[in-house]
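Suppose a colleague, Dr. K., hands you the sequence of a protein chain of 255 amino acids and asks what its three-dimensional shape might be. Before reaching for any lab equipment, you can write down a predicted structure in token form. Begin with the sequence itself:
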Amino acid sequence: MNKKVLEFRGVEKAVFQQRENRFTVRLADGRRAHLHDPGRLKELLVPGAEMIIVENCGKKRKTCHDVLAVKHGKYWVFLNSGYHSEVAEAVIPSVFGQGIAAREVKIGGSRIDFLLEDDRPLEVKGCTLLRDRIAFFPDAPTTRGARHALEIARHKGSLLFLVFHPTARELKFNCGTDPDFCTAVRTAAEAGAEIRAVKFKTIVRDRTLTVYFVGEVPVTWTDCFIYSLFLSCSKRRLLLKALETSVVFRALFGN
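The predicted structure, expressed as tokens, is then:
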């Protein structure tokens, strides 16, 4: 499909050196940049990795640049979660067949990203973890994500996962990293929630970064349901400890 959903001009390349804290990275030239992504990103943020940054100075800011993307193999991976809603808005009509009625809607104890025209809530999550062309979410435990998924379950809403790897062939849930999120997503699916995933590619030419919508990717549920069965076992802690050391478990659920 290759529909353009975001474009940044005046970007520049930099080299990642280290992550100083959750939201700040140090570059090889000594500059610091703001990282608007709470994930662990350990597969992406490796010393020497190429980054794309853009200038963004302000009186209340500690840095004058934002990280937009990092190179993983041959491909750029878009990292800035501050733009997830904008990306989602560009694809929601084609994916769900309807428009957006409201944004940032308070539902129960959570603030959900969108309310669709059919009055169903829609929550958006970004995915940057890829292994063997399989996208996994999340890459770190997310209490907030589990809470949102349960809220979606209660209102039979929708979850949309934005996969920023163009080669991903499917999305799985990273149950080994966050079993609570796995259980919450299973609850949402059983309640009738619509759960979809879409992927994007990021292209950098000269000093312009563009994000394109590529299309949908299937969501694989089997692992999530199997893992939930493990959690229901009366001796689940011992069982999981043994399983987590096995090659088969890691292949199924990630780590």
